[in-house]
Amino acid sequence: MLKSFFAAADSGGATVDTRLLNPRLRAGETLRGEVVVSGGAVDQDIARIALLLLAEAERGGGERREALTLASLPVSGPCRIPAACQWRLPFQLTLPEDTPVNCHPALGGEPLVWIHTDLALNRPRDAGGGDRLQVLPTRQAETVLRAFSSLGWELSGPARATGSPVCRQWFELRPRDAGWNWNGIALTFVSDGRGVSHAMVEIDAADGEHCLSLRMEPDWEDRDWELEIRARLGW
């Protein structure tokens, strides 16, 4: 999807188009694209070109939603754009580990995650003026969610993302069948930046809330997570 941002309010000004080559990816993977700068009718000075990775996150206990900045990437500093020129500025941006997931059948495309092209023009940073991303679960999260699904627990509605101060996303699970004495399970995934991930599990049970952590070491792919979850939860 292309989004044009005029570098001047009047017609004939330079335009900047951000083009994403792989808008469907996972946290930890690298987003690639290019910023195409097209000169207008006259030479024009700009203060900078930068890309911001933004996500819609809840604040104030869910009372409001705001655009949370997850990462930024400078593309160009102050420069003069010659009339009628065309520049192609390639970029790469690695999605942080806390980038929320929105690409799953149960999530309905939420929360929104997008790239905002910043030209120091004080333009709104809402998703309507940006290039949206489809963020898949990480391999670890995908494995744990699949294991819970095999055990009878499915994602229920959009996963909440909160931002105070970092982005944290909660996946709500509900049982497919009656007969459980648990009302729901909430999952969030945390990486320590050294190759170890933790699946934090909160259980809403009839006798109160219970919490535990599933530690996913670098060899996590060699383990049977359905059996691991059964053992940890006493199923």
Protein described:
The chain is mostly beta strands and 235 residues long. It contains two helices and 18 strands. Strands 13, 14, 15, 16, 17 and 18 form a six-stranded antiparallel sheet that branches. Strand 1 (3-6) and strand 2 (15-20) form a beta hairpin. The chain is elongated. The termini are far apart.
In a nutshell, what does this entry contain?
This protein has helices at residues 139-150, 225-233, and strands at residues 3-6, 15-20, 24-26, 30-38, 44-46, 49-59, 64-76, 79-81, 86-94, 113-118, 131-132, 134-136, 153-155, 160-163, 167-175, 182-191, 197-205, 208-216.
List keywords for this structure.
2 domains, Spore_0_M, Immunoglobulin-like, mainly beta, 4-stranded antiparallel β-sheet, 6-stranded antiparallel β-sheet, 235 residues
The CATH architecture of the largest domain is Sandwich
What is the C-level CATH assignment of the largest domain? Answer: Mainly Beta
Mean pLDDT over the residues: 88
Query: Alpha-carbon distance between the termini?
Result: 46 Å
Q: What profile does the largest beta sheet have?
A: 6 strands, antiparallel
Poorly predicted residue ranges:
1-10
**H/E series, N to C?**
EEEEEEEEEEEEHEEEEEEH
Count of alpha/pi helices: 2
Helicity, as a percent range: under 10%
**Total of domains:** 2
CATH topology of the largest domain: Immunoglobulin-like
